[in-house]
């Protein structure tokens, strides 16, 4: 069975690229629910564009801001995808570019361009669950986690949510023992995800705090990621989301790391 990507937290980051199929009947198969949530979270239209603002706060009240544009294109419906994230603010990270080739059934390829060093850094699979540009989101949160990497169990069905508990097939490759996702029964959007240690302690939590319908697609427009160990959090707001804008294939090439497609970054 092909491994698909699950909206495990940030994907709200990939975000504002959300489509929602209608499911009138109650679902009972946890794998089917997870795959439907993946479809709802990542595959609105054939492509998408969104502007985003990040507010990063630590437990001492120190704040940092990030601003970027996210571009996404599907290679095939429900399959491989391409992402380009181009940072515009603050000045010290302007021109930083993150590129992802999401490969269903295989490891994603990720690169980060650092303009100050004129350096293209490949993000290894061992680094995928580390901080994304100093935020509380991880690199893996951007392109999602393969559903085949975890075992899934439907632990509860409430009036509003399917509650799924997922455990890693390779626990040595991740820092969590399990995580639970609260998937909206109407929209199939994962509205909350809580990551746990073996003891059951929750140390990291994602919550979609605002949803808007854009071009007919329910879209997560504000997402909070909390680090419960440090007390810090990152809030990401998505604006000006658009779908089926006709993004050309060549803007997702290696060349775009150093020369991002300016015409597609303007609102």
Could you characterize the architecture of this molecule?
It comes from Spiribacter salinus. This is Outer membrane lipoprotein-sorting protein. Keywords: Lipoprotein, Signal. Residues 1-24 form the signal peptide. InterPro entries: TP_0789-like. Helices cover 10% and strands 44% of the residues. It has 267 residues and is mainly beta. The chain has a single domain, classed as Clam (outer membrane lipoprotein receptor (LolB), chain A), CATH 2.50.20.10. Strands 7-6-5-4-3-2-15-14-13-12-11-10-9 form a 13-stranded antiparallel sheet. Strands 1-8 form a two-stranded antiparallel sheet. A hairpin with a 6-residue loop joins strand 3 (63-74) and strand 4 (81-89). The longest helix has 13 residues, at 30-42. Mean pLDDT is 90; it is low at 15-22.
């Amino acid at each position: 069975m092909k491994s698909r990507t699950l909206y495990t937290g940030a994907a709200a980051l990939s975000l504002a690229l959300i489509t929602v199929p209608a499911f009138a009947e109650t679902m009972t198969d946890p794998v089917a629910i997870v795959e439907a949530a993946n479809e709802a979270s990542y595959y609105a239209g054939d492509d998408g564009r969104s502007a985003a603002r990040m507010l990063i706060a630590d437990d001492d009240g120190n704040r940092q801001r990030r601003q970027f544009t996210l571009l996404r294109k599907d290679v095939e419906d429900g399959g491989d995808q391409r992402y380009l994230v181009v940072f515009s603010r603050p000045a010290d990270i302007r021109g930083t570019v993150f590129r992802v080739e999401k490969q269903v059934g295989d490891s994603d390829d990720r690169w980060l361009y650092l303009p100050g060093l004129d350096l293209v850094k490949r993000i290894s699979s061992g680094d995928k669950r580390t901080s994304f540009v100093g935020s509380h989101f991880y690199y893996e949160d951007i392109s999602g986690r393969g559903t085949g990497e975890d075992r899934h169990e439907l632990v509860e069905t409430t009036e509003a949510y399917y509650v799924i508990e997922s455990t890693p097939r390779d626990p040595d490759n991740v820092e969590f023992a399990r995580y639970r996702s609260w998937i909206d029964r109407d929209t199939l959007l994962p509205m909350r995800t809580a990551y746990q240690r073996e003891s059951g302690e929750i140390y990291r939590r994602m919550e979609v705090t605002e949803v808007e319908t854009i071009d007919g697609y329910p879209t997560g427009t504000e997402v909070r990621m909390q680090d419960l160990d440090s007390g810090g959090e990152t809030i990401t707001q998505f604006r000006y989301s658009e779908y089926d804008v006709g993004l050309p294939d060549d803007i997702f090439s290696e060349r775009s790391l150093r020369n991002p497609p300016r015409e597609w970054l303007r609102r």
